[in-house]
Amino acid sequence: MKRQTKSEIRNQKSETVLFAVTGMSPAVITETVWALAHEKPAVFPDRIIVVTTVAGRAAIQRELFDTGIWDKLRAALAPKIRVHPRSSVKPLRFGTTADDIRVFTRGDAHGRSVELEDIRTPADNEAAADFLLCQLRSFTENPDVSLICSIAGGRKTMGTLLYACLSLIGRETDRLTHVLVSEPYDDVRLRPRFYFPTQPAAKLLTPDGEKLPAIKARIDLADVPFVPLRNLFREELGRLPGGFLRLVDRCRRDVRRQLVESVRLLISRSQPLIEINGNPIDLTPMEQAAMLFLAKRATDGAPPFAKYLEALEPFRDFCHTLRRQCPANNFADWRGRLPLDSLNQAVAENDDVILRKIRDGIRSKLLKHGFGAAEADLFLPRKGRFGIDLSPARIRIQN
């Protein structure tokens, strides 16, 4: 008996799903399916799920089903498909049901769910993100489903949100793809439009009257890399789905917590120098004083200031104390170079700009030393909060 290859044997325990977002150009569906079928080994999704708008659904019905294009594509690919003899289900299952074509929805003022005609407003974007997250979760939580996501169609917002959702809950085994069609076959003004190289309409007319043979079109499928963050946030993913923004916020907090737990900050009293995880960073006297001020408050368990202005006078007083600790006639001591007059003037004028300049200066040095923005912000005040986020256990002040 001839031994079957992997491409000829379909795993009866798993299902491959092509999950696509589309708008007014349903051709991305046929193009993606064609490209997958011509990979080595060929890939034939068991079913296709398309998420779109009300107008997008009408376009799919009009262009793919009313014209028979979808059936023609299946017929063109049929010779390449090898179905397991014990299986009665053929691949490329796709139709006009609500399960195959899923329309974005959002709640209205009366608490009813309505279908989205388009995605334009911030509220539409949030609703679309929630919808995609919910739809994807049903597949990514099923170990028997292999997922291929396509960001080729629809508004840029749709593809961006799908990328974000798959990054949050996708698995290492899932794919994210974008289909590319050679020019000028990607022109939506072609009559008839291009769907796949062996489509029934073999000649396509350009706006300039040129006739193009469809068979010469080139379709390439690009895999888009993404980082599956689910391994970092298993606790969050195990909870109820919730909304997209809520999950993003929880994951951000988790990232921040993990960053905090990985940091060791050492601050010198004798020289304008800090070390972060063993990496030395030289600071100006004012920047060093600010880091000492913030670190001492953190190790003393003092809460951060709610406003920069609230920190201005205590910081000025702290700098005066540092100056008094400077040995007499020791002109090399960094504390002797603290510009107290500038601090006194800032307090008198109730102007916190000096604190913001200090923060920006430290941040610039951290970024130049290779720290990411999220890491740098752990050590620095931010809007509405003058303090650092490190726990006392992660901070050491040495002479």
> How would you write the strand order of the largest sheet?
3-2-1-6-7-10
Briefly note the structural class of the backbone. alpha/beta
Q: Tell me, what's the shape? A: elongated
What's the total count of β strands? 14
Note the beta-strand portion. Answer: 15-25%
The percentage helix is 25-40%
What gap, in angstroms, lies between the N and C termini?
81 Å
Radius of gyration: 30 Å
**Average pLDDT figure:** 87
* Main sheet properties: 6 strands, mixed
Low-confidence stretches: 1-12
Order of helix and strand elements from N to C terminus: EHEHHEEEHEHEEEEHHEEEHHHHHE
Number of domain units:
2
Number of helical stretches of at least 4 residues: 12
Descriptors:
alpha/beta, 399 residues, four-stranded mixed beta sheet, disordered N terminus, 2 domains, single chain
